[in-house]
Write the C-alpha cells for this entry.
Amino acid sequence: MIMKRLIIIFGILSLTGITQAADNNDSQIGQMTHHNMKHSLNDGRISLGLSPEMKQHQLSNMRAHLKAIQTIIGLIVEKKFDDASKIAHSQLGLTEKMKRMCNMFSNNNFIELGLAFHKSGDTLGEALLTRDTNQSLRALQNTVGYCVQCHATFRQ
Ligand code: HEC
C-alpha cells in the first residue's frame, strides 16, 4: 500500500519535472537573452554612469589598489612593517590625488564611501607602525571591508 503510494507520488513528481524541462526548452533562447540583459543592465547595484574614459581610468586605479593589498600582505609576512606602512599611505591613503579622483564622481554616496575607504588606508598605515601583526591584519580587514562594501553597492 505504502509502496504503491510512493510509486504514484514519484510518478507525479517526475511528470512535473518533464513538463518543466519541456517548458524551459521552448523558451530557452528568450530566457538566456533576458538573463544576459538583466545581468549587464541591472544587477541591483547603483550605476555611476561613467564615460568610457572614466571607466578605463577607474579600472586601472582599482587594479593598483588590488596590487597594493597584495604587496602589503607580503610585507606583513616578512615583518617589513615600515615599507608596508608607506605603501598603505601612498597607495590607499587619502592623498591629494585620491581626494581629487574621488571628487570627480557625481554620486555623493560613492564619494563619501571612497573618502572613508582612503581614510581607512591611512589608519592601516598607522596600525602597521605598531609592528603588531594582529593589529595590522585587523586594520587591513577593515580596509578590505570597504572594497567589498563599495563593489556590492556600485558599478560603473
Ligand atoms: C568607493 C568604491 C570602491 C572602493 C572603496 C573600491 N572599489 Fe574597486 N571598483 C569600484 C567600482 C565601481 C568598480 C567597477 C565595478 C563594476 O562596474 O562592475 C571597481 C572595480 C574593481 C576591480 C576590477 C578591475 C578591472 O580591471 O576589471 C578591482 C580589481 C577592484 N575594484 C579592486 C578594489 C580593491 C582591492 C579595493 C580595496 C582595496 C577596491 N577596489 C575598493 C569601486 C570601488
About this structure: The radius of gyration is 25 Å.
